[in-house]
Amino acid sequence: MANKAPKTVEEQIALLKERGMLFRNEANAPHFLKNISYYRLKGYWWEMQSDKVEHLFNDYSYFEEVINLYNFDRHLRLLMFDTIERIEVALRTKLIYQLSLSYGPLCYIDYTIFSDKTKQKSITDHLNIEISRSKEQFILEHNKNHKNELPEAWKALEVASLGTLSKLYKNLAHQLPEKSKIAIEFGFNSHKDFSSFLEATTVIRNVIAHHSRLWNNNITTKYSWPKNLKNQPITYIPNENQRAKLFSLLSLTLYTIDCISPGNSIKDKFFKLVNEYPNVPVHKMGFPVNWRTQPIWVQ
Description:
This protein has 299 residues and is mainly alpha-helical. Helices cover 55% and strands 2% of the residues. β1 and β2 (56-57) form a beta hairpin. α4 (63-103) packs antiparallel against α13 (266-276) and α8 runs antiparallel to α10.
């Protein structure tokens, strides 16, 4: 029923209890509900319901377990943000280096190196908006000292979002040697697979940026699973349903990080997080029973 009446925190707690939610320490519940909205937490208790129409909870469903799930997810988002940031910075660096050396400082408006000129015009227009919004000192200095001149690639792409970088990379002409070079440096033999990976990673980056739920969430963008990697991250090719969950993409992300940042501690941090929250059902994120024995996860 739309336009339901709003409820106070006390009424929210009463409703949860009426539906079967248990509390180990009910006195702490108002603190959480005053700082984390009821509907944000709802995503974490959804799977605890035996009846998702009447919203009745399974036996032994505790509010504190919901908070544990929320905290696990919050730390997971921070870890994924750290991981994707490394990929974004490396992608930006490699695009600037490869393209500017081969095609000049304004390579991003050299439409001869892109597959779809109309699409590239749209990408460039969006990039110009990002440049105009930037408060980076080097952009402000450029605008002051070089009026009516476009910034060089090492300035322009430095303020581009991951989404813009991903689209620019995808639109590079397929025969361009630099396109393949960049993919190979990230561990991908196919630039199409790498581009597909970037699109899915951008979706996850946007989920994190909006502080949305990663645990038990679906990846809405379909992506291809790369073949003939030098080190396969997992021993099987995940199907579409498996790729819709986080495990497959997370495994591929760890593989990519190992290629561009050998000796990183991302995997160790993930194991530490899982050990800190042993009751979190990671299978809801697509983790198979034997996930710890998969090549990328072996410690």
